[in-house]
Amino acid sequence: METALAKTPQKRQVIFLALLLLLWEAGSETIRYSMPEETGSGSFVANLAKDLGLRVGELAPRGARIHYKGNKQLLQLDIKTGSLLLSEKLDREVLCGATDPCILQFQLLLENPVQFFQADLQLTDINDHSPEFLEREMLLKIPESVQPGTVFPLKIAQDLDIGSNTVQNYTISPNSYFHVVAHNRGDGRKYPELVLDKALDREEQPELSLTLTALDGGAPPRSGTTTIRIEVVDINDNAPEFLQSLYEVQVPENSPLNSLVVRVSARDLDAGTYGTVAYTLFQGDEVTQPFVIDEITGDIRLKKALDFETTQYYNVEIAATDGGGLSGKCTVIIQVVDVNDNAPELTMSTLTSSTPENSPEIVVAIFSVSDPDSGDNGKMVCSIQNDLPFLLKPTFKNFYTLVTESPLDRETRSEYNITITVTDMGTPRLKTEHNITVLVSDVNDNAPAFTQTSYTSKNLILTLFDYLLNLMWVHTVKGHNKARCLFFQRYYYLHTSVGK
């Protein structure tokens, strides 16, 4: 009996080590799934149990659950069939914006015994958005002296879709003066340019109105239109030129509103109205880009707040237009610099409020930590108080298990208040604390003890006799033998009165 009890802790240690090996192996491979966005709620994604080589019947007893960052439940697991289903219709543009590919990472957590499996769900784009121009009308003032072949940049159309489903081409309504060509931008989007085919004559036709159409690559394609209004003006033979064609600047994400980002400058050799330059945000998406430019000075300032975790850089195009309608452009690349503005987050997956005493290495809690910041600002360290018989053990990336370091003794201490502290490595360091209470449950590990170490012969005999009578009384009551119960009760009272 003693040998079997002595081997039990060793066997549990071996099982725990094997569990850690299983966790490591589980984290080394990732199962990947793919499905189109806008798929209906309740749609079947995959049989997760089958793909992981698990029996369907073991999901419920092992406490299977899906875990991923955030509180919104996008996926659900049918523990009866092992099927992975959509909890709601998923919109790729809402979940990932312009990020491509759009991948949702999640884990399958098995609590008994603890085991993790990493999985990814990639949402593929469908053509559910049409191209859209931010303005219903573009105004171009073109001098009549402009030579055929001259190119006029036009504002781009926005399309929330990606890949071939975004804007692929531009067309212009039939006319005898212009045609349109499309070019690739550095970020993969296409922008239109208007090309003059024959010289304009203000006296013959002072104004033109053209329809610009943006087409995406869907099947069938979607489209959006805007009007180009062209005013033919008198001679202006010099277009503004920027001192730099490319500006690059870094801006901390916690910069205050209205702070200066950069100043651009263009010059025009013409005099008077034709030499006066006005600055505008040209190719930029004025709805989403948090910048504004001073029309006169060229100062670009911060207007909606920056967030490194949302957007890390902006590609802004600036136009300088003179009084005659000629324009030049430059590109401003603005890189958002991360600051430590997000405290770590702790998500508790499993919490055991009561732990039996005398048991080695019991799992008390399983939790995950996250920090949306980057670099050292997103690196985290977990700790608990040093004077507690508990250990924090990393199990998977950003997952930790809280276990007992040694067997607990309820008679020594019946309750522990544990503070889990998660600290990032940024400057200044931010931390999150999570408090849990663990109760130590009792086991029958203490034998009865006499209240005194020595007795006189008379007292000893009476004491032992009392003990035996009490013991027989208890067993008799438990056995529900009323006659024997009455006998022992009377005999006990008689003995007690004689002893006294």
TrEMBL record:
Keyword match Acyltransferase: no
User: Which cellular compartments is it found in?
Assistant: Membrane
One GO term under biological process is: homophilic cell adhesion via plasma membrane adhesion molecules
UniProt key word Membrane? yes
Ranges for domain Cadherin:
134-242, 243-346, 347-450
Sorted keywords for this record are: Calcium, Cell adhesion, Glycoprotein, Membrane, Repeat, Signal, Transmembrane, Transmembrane helix
- GO terms for cellular component: plasma membrane
Q: What is this protein called?
A: Protocadherin beta-5-like
Topology versus the membrane:
Single-pass membrane protein
Q: Which GO terms describe its molecular function?
A: calcium ion binding
